[in-house]
Structures
1.
Amino acid sequence: MRLHRLEVTAFGPFPETVEVDLDALSDAGLFLLTGPTGAGKTSVLDAVCFALYGDVPGDRGSAKRLRADQAAPGVRPRVELELSVAGRRLRLVRTPAWEREKLRGTGTTTEQASVVLAERLPDGEWRTLSTRLDETGHLVGDLLGMTLTQFTQVAMLPQGRFQAFLRAKSEDRHKLLEWSNRTIGGSDPEYQDDGTGDDHGATYEAAMIEMAMYAHELTDRKRAEPADDLWTVLTTATVTLDDGTVTELTDLERDLFFTLLLVAGNETTRNAVSLGIMGFMDHPDQWERVTGGAGMDEAAVDEVLRYTSPVNYFRRTATEDTELGGQLIRAGDKVTLWYASGNRDEAVYEDPHRLDLTRTGNHHLAFGGGGAHFCLGASLARLELKVIFEALAARMPDIVATGPADRLRMSLVNGIKHLPVEFSPSEPVLTA
C-alpha cells in the first residue's frame, strides 16, 4: 500500500481544510511524522485509518466525535485519501456522523456517515465502486488483506501500548524472529501469505512498519533509561559530517539501522548454522573431526562460510566503464555478484563442492569480498559459528537428519526453514 494524497476538513484538531501531497514529498513512499506532543501526528494517522475503515482505534474515541470542535458552524467533517494498493489507484472520501444545527427551528440533527470509494481508470477518469458503508468496508478489507483490528495493531498501535509490549521479553523475541522471517521471506508462502490469497507484499510491508515502530519506541526508552548496550550507544551517538557539523542520527536512520541489525544480524548466521549442519551430515568425516576434539578453528569456520554461502548474491551499480571477463560493463549498469558461484569456483578451489575444514588459502566471499561493503558483523558471525558448532558437538555429537530440508523460497538468501533431526539427549544443563 502506498499513500498519495490526504485531505482533511473539520477533522480532529484541523478546523479548516488541510491537504498533504505525499507524492510531492518523496518518490520513495516512506515518511516520518515528527513533532512535539499535541502537534497532530496521531490525528494524521487517525485520518488515514478513518478513510480506510470508517473508524479509529478505540483508545482515541468514537468516530462520531471526530469533528473538530473549532470548525465553523455547518462545516461538514470530511477525509479524502488517495492510495495505491495491489496495482490499483483508489480514492476514499468519508464523513463521520456529526451533529449540526437544524435549518429550521432550534436544536440539532444528526448527519449520517457517508463514503464514496472510487477507482482511477487508465484514461484518468474516476469510477465509483461503492457508496455503501458495509460494501466499502468489505472491499477495503479484501484489498488490504487486513481487518480494522489488524490494521490498527500493525500500523496504528496507540501511544502507551508499547510499555506493556516491551516488557514481554519472550514475546519480543518471538516477534523479532517473525518480523525477520516475513521481511526476508520473499515470495515464500509460509512467511508472506496472510491467509487472504492476496498480495504477498502486504505482510512484508506490515513487518517493516512494525519493526520501525518497535525501534522508535526502543529509542525513546533508551533515552529515558540508558543502559550498557548497543542501542543506547546508537541513541546517543553523534556523527561528524564532512563540513565539520556534529549531529545525531535521525529517527529514520535509527529505524532503518534497527531493521539492518535485526535481519542481517540473524538471518545469515542462523542459516549458516543450518546449512553447516547439513554439510556436516553430508561429510560425516568432517563432523567427526569437530566432535573428536579438533573443534572449530579459524580455518574450519571460514570453510563452513565458503561452503554454505548464506547470501547468494548482491547487486551493485558500476560507477565507471570497465571490462570483466571480456564483457563490457558501462557506468550505471547493474551487476549481480553471485557469491555462491564464486565460493564454488573450480578455478580457485580444489574439489569446491566438498566441505574440508583443513582447507587453506580460503578467500571466500561470504562477507561480501572486502572493500567498502564488507560485512561489519564478520567478526561476530565467526565467533557465533565457532561457539554454536562446538556446543552442538559437545551436546549433540550424534545428530543426524531424519528427513529432507525445507528450503526458503527466496533468491537472495540461501535459507533453511525446517530440518528434522534426531539425537541422543544429554544431561540437562542448569543455568542461574
2.
Amino acid sequence: MKKISILMGALALAGGFASCSDDDTPALNTPESFVLNTPPTADQYYELTPGGTIALSCSQPDYGFVAAATYGVEMSLDKSEDNVYAIESNAPSQAAFTISQEAVAMGFCKLNGIETVDQWNELNPGYAPIYIRATAQLNKGGVGLVKSNWIELKNVKPYFAVPTPGFIYLVGTPSEWSMNLTETLKNWRLYEDDKAIGSKIYTGVFNIPAGDVLFRLYSELDGNWDTFSYGPANNHNGDAVASDGAFNITCEFNADGEFTDGIKATKDNFHFPNWDGGQVTIIVDMSKEDAMTVTMVRGEHKPVVSNYAYMVGNNGGWVVPDAESVYATDWRLTDEGATGIYTGTFQMPADFGADGDKLYCRFYDALNGWGAAKWSAAADGSNVDAFSGIALPTVQGEGCFVLAGAAGHSVTVNLDANNNEVTFTIND
C-alpha cells in the first residue's frame, strides 16, 4: 500500500476519505483559480440598504475529487491584493449564495479608512465601482484555499456603516418621564466605551437635582412603557406601588458613596427619596442576561476601562465577527485597567465538526467584520500549531492558531498585547 500523504489529513477535515487503496487514493489538487460569475445586474445601480442582499454564483473548484468547499467573498476598491475586505456568504457551503449589502457598505468604509461621520461627509461618495471575488477552501483552517477572478459592480452607492457605541436611556423624574427622542432625553443616555463596542456595558455621568428621585432604564424607546424596561432585580423592599403598577424600590448609597444592585426586565423603579443633588456616575452591565448589574458612584468618576479582545474562529462557528455575534460576549478576553494583558477562560464545544478536536482561532481588537486580525498566527494566512502552556508570537494577519485536543475542555487564553504573544492552557 502506498503511503498516505500529509494532505490526506486535509481531506479528512473536509469530510473526505477514511481509507485508501493502491489504485484509487485521491490526491488533493488545489486549482489556481475558479470562476465567479458576473451577475446580469452588474451594470445596474446598487443603492445599498441595511437589509438588502447581492446574489452571486460561482463554479465549483476542481480539487481532483468531489469535495464540499466553504465559500466566502472578498471585496476591493481597486483589485489590490494589499487592501481587501472579507465578507461571509449567507450559504457558505453552496456555490450560489448572497452577501449582505450592509457588509459591502462596511467594507467600503473600512477600505476607505472611514471611522467617523465627519470623514464620511468629507468623502461624500456617490455611485462608484467595487470589485468582488469569491474564495473557496476545504475548511476554515485554509486547506485548499483558492480565489476566483474579480468581477466589477459598476455603480454601487454605499452608506455610512461603521459600528458606533450602543446606548441605553435613563428615564424617570430627572428626564421628566419623557419617552420622546428629544434633545433633552438624549442627554440621559449611557454609552458603551468607544473601545468596547458591542460589550453591552454602558456608562453615564449625570447631574441630578435634589429631591425625590425615581428612574428605570430603557434599552430602546418604542413609545411603550412596558417594553425594553429594566429596574431593580430585588423588590423585597418596595415601599409603594406606583400608579402604573410598578414598585418603587428604596435604594441607598453606602458609606463610600456607592450603590450596586442587580437589574432585570421590569417596570419597577430605583427610588432615592432623599437625594441631595449633584453628580453621579452610573455603570450598567447588560452583557449577561442572567447577571445584569447597575453600579452608581457619587460624583464624576472615570470608570476603570476594560478593553476587550475577541477570539474568532470555529469556537464561535465562524459567524461574522460583528457586535451582534456570539464573539461580543461569549468569546471575549478582558483587559481590566488597560494593562495590555487580555485573559479569558472558555468552555470549548464538544467537537468542532469537520475540524475534529482542533480549535482554529485568531484575535480581533474590534468586531467590524472579516479582515486581518490584530493578533493572528501568520500575516500570509497560514496556520500555526499551538501547544498548551507554550507562548506563541502574534502578528497582524488572517492565520489561525490551531490547538489540538481543545474540544470539550476548558481553555484559558492569555493574550499579551505588550509583547505580542498568546498562550493557550488546556485546564482539564
3.
Amino acid sequence: MKNSVKFFGVLALMLLMAAPAMAADFNMSDALAKFWNDMGITSFFVGEGWKNAVMLGIGCFLLYLAIKKEYEPLLLLPIAFGMVLTNLPGAGMFHTEMWNNEFLNPDSPYYHSYRHIMAEGGLLDILYIGVKAGVYPCLIFLGVGAMTDFGPLIANPKSLLLGAAAQLGIFATFLVTQIDIFGFNPQEAASIGIIGGADGPTAIFLTTKLAPHLLGPIAVAAYSYMALVPVIQPPIMRALTTKKERMIRMKQLRTVSKKEKIVFPIVVAIVVCALYGACEFDLGRKLYKTSKNEFYIYLAALFGVLIFGTVYGVVIGVILSFLEVIIRAVAPPKSFLGIIPGKTDFYDLERNRDARTIEHVVIYRFGGNLFFANIDDFESDIEDAIQPDTTTVVADTGAVRSSRRCLSAPPSAASRPDSWACLPEWEPPSA
C-alpha cells in the first residue's frame, strides 16, 4: 500500500512539473490525430488496406471452423492463423515486396536470395522459404502417407479407379480458366486447375514450376478447399443421392492384416521408384515439344509395358511407329511460308499470325520424299496457290532425296501441270 502511494505521488509531481511546458505547446486535435495515425488499425482505411481487413475476417472464420467445428484442424488451423498474422497491420511478419519485387526480379541484387530473406524478413518470410524450396510438400506427403489407411484399397483394388474422377475437375478448371475474361495464361491455368485434384502438395509443386508468382493464393486455396470438404460435400451428396442410398452402410470386403498394410506402401514405393528410373521421362518431355505424334507413341508404349508387359509394350511401339512412318510418307508435313517484318527467316503462314506472304511470290515447303502416293498433293497444292499475278514459285524440297536445293520456276512453267521437275544441280542466277 505504501509503495503504491509513493508511486502515484511521484507521478503526480512529474505531471505538475511538466504542466507549464505542456500547456504552451499542447494541441488536443494534433494529439488525437497523431494517436490515430500511429494506430495499426488506421492502415485498414488507407489505400488497399481494406483487403487486409477482409483477409483477417476470412482468417478468423477459418479459425472458427477449425476450432469449433473441427473441420480438418491440422490443415485449417495453421492456414488460418498464418492468414491472421500476415495481415496484422504493422506486424512486419511477412513482406510481399521481398518475394515479388526483390526475390523474383532478375535485375535485383536479391534475386532468389534466401540469405536476404533470412536477414531482413519476418517470421512468416522465413517459414515461407520452405514453401519456395519445396520442403513442405515432401513433409506433408510423409505425414499423409503415414496416416492413410490402405485397407479398403487393398481389399478392393478396383476402387483405385475412383481416383480418376478428380482428374475431370482438373481439366474442366483448366479449360474454363483459358477463357479470355479470366486473363490467365496456360501455365497459370494449369496451376489453378491442379487444385481440383484435392492434393495440396502437388498444387504447390506444380505452381513453383509453372506460375511461382501465384504460389501464395494457390496454396491457400488448395488447402482451404481440402479442409472445407466437410462443408462442401454434404449439400452435393444430398442433391445427387436419395435418403435411402445415403443410409446404405458400406462394409469392408475383408479384413486386411497389419502385415499387408505395412508391405503394401513399401512395395509400391519400390516399384514406382524402379519404374521412374526405367522410364525416359526427359525423352517424353522432348518428344512433346518436337513431335506430338512420336510423343503419343511413347505414351502408348509406356502404358503397354506397364499394363501388358515389356514384350507387348515394345510390339505396340513398333507397330505404331511403322504406321506413323507410312502416314508421314503418304501425307508429309507441308506448309506455305512467308516473312515477318523485321526478321530474316521464313515462317509458316498458318502457325504464325504475324507472317505475311511476299508479293507475287509463292514459297512452298514439302517435308517428305516424292513418290506415287503424294506427288499429286505436291502438284495440286502449288497449282491452287498460284494466282494470276504470281511471278515466282519457290519450292523448298530439302526433304526430297532427289533434290538438294530449292526449286525456282517462272509462272510460265509453274502454270502447266506437266512441267514440274526436280533439278538437283540447279543453281540460282547470280546477282
4.
Amino acid sequence: MKETEYNINAGRGTEMFHFVYADEDGNGYIDEDYFALGLLGAQFVEPTEEEVIPLPEGASLTMIPNRTPVVINDEDQFVLYPGEGWVMGALLPQGYTRTLLPAFVNHDGAAGLPLFGYAAVFAQDGELYVAATPTDEDYKWNPQYFNTDDLAERVEQLQKQFPENRLLKQLGHCALTYGCFTAQNIFYHRWEGGIPVSPVCNARCLGCISLQPSECCPSPQSRLTFVPTVQEVVELAVHHLKDAEDGIISFGQGCEGDPSMQADLIAEAITQIRQQTDNGTINMNTNAGNTEGIKKIVDAGIDSLRVSLNSGTNAVYNAYYRPVQYTLDQVRQSLRYAADHGVYTYLNLLTFPGINDCTDEVESLLQLVQDNDVKAIQVRNLNIDPETMKPIIDLLQGEPLGVPAFLNILAEELPTVAIGNYTKPFRRKKA
C-alpha cells in the first residue's frame, strides 16, 4: 500500500461528518468513531458545509475496492482507517457538480477504476451526505423518463421504419445496452437526440469513454465502427427535428470519436436537413481542434457548438486531451469563428476538484471565455480514476480554492454566461 501519495492538509475549521465505508459485499456502514475526509486535488481536507448536501435522489452508492480510506481519529489526526472496509463513494445524477473526491490511498497493484465520477460520501446524525452542489435543474434528464418498459418496442418500431439505416442499429444498441439518454431520445422522439458519425478522433483523452488502451480501465461503451452516409444522417435528423418536442440533434456522442473529423459529411447533412425542415436545433459536441473542419460546419449553418475542455492552460489541456496535430490555440480559433458567425458556443467543462478551481486555472478559463464570447459553461464531472489525474495535478501552479468558490467566481466574473449542466434548444443568430 502506498501511504505517501497525497499531501496532508490541515483541517478547514468546519462542521465534522462521520466516516462511511463498505464491506467486501458492498454493504455500507457508518463508523462514528472516525470523522470523514475528502480529497481536493492532492490534499486531504475536511469538508465544509458549502461542499456537502444530503444524498440526492438518483445518486448511487458504490464501493471502491483495494483502496484504504483516510480518516480523522479522536486525536484530530489524519490516519489510514484501521478497520476492515473499503472506500465508499457516490455517483451523482446530472444537475449536480462534485466538490470533493473520496479520501483514500491505493494498494500496490490495484486495478484501475471504471470511468465514473466518484464523489465523497459522509454521514451526520445517521443520514448520508455527499460532496456535491446542485448546478442545474431540468426535468428532461430525470431518470424516470428513460429506460421505460416500452423502450425496446420503440427501438424495434423505428428500426422497422428505416430498415437500412445503420445508425438506428447503433443507437438501438446504445439505448438498450448502455442506457444512453441521448440515444433513447431518438426512439422516444423528443428532446436531445444523438447522431454519431465519426469512428476516429484527433485526441487521445485519458478519460475517453469509448476507446481505451488494453492496459487501462475498460471503456463503458464501444465506439462506432463505420462512417454513415449523408442519407442515413439526414433521414434520421429530419425525422427527429420535424416534430419532436424541443428537438435537438447532436453530433458527437459518447460512442464516437470527434465528429469534426467528418466535417464534409456533417456540412452536407446540415444543408440537406435545412432544405427539408427549419425546426429544431442542430448541435455538435466537439473538442474543436480541427478548426478548418469547424469552419465548414459553421458555414453550413449549425446552430450551436459545445466544446469539450478541461483547462485554459496548455500544459493541463495537453496532459489530458493528448491532442493529435492540433493545439489549444486552434480550439480558441474555432470558438471565435463560431461566435463571430452567430453560433451559440458553450463549454463542456470537465470538472475535477482541485484542478479547475486552482487559481491559475480559474484565471485562464475566465480569459478564454471572455476572449471568445462563450455563451454558457456546462460543468460536467470528469469520469475517471483519481489516480490517473495525479500527473496533471503535479502540473498545477496555483492553490485550489474549492469547487463552490470556483463556481461563485464564474458567476461573479461572467454575469452574462449561463452556468449549468444541460444542453438547451437554440437557433443560430444570423450573422
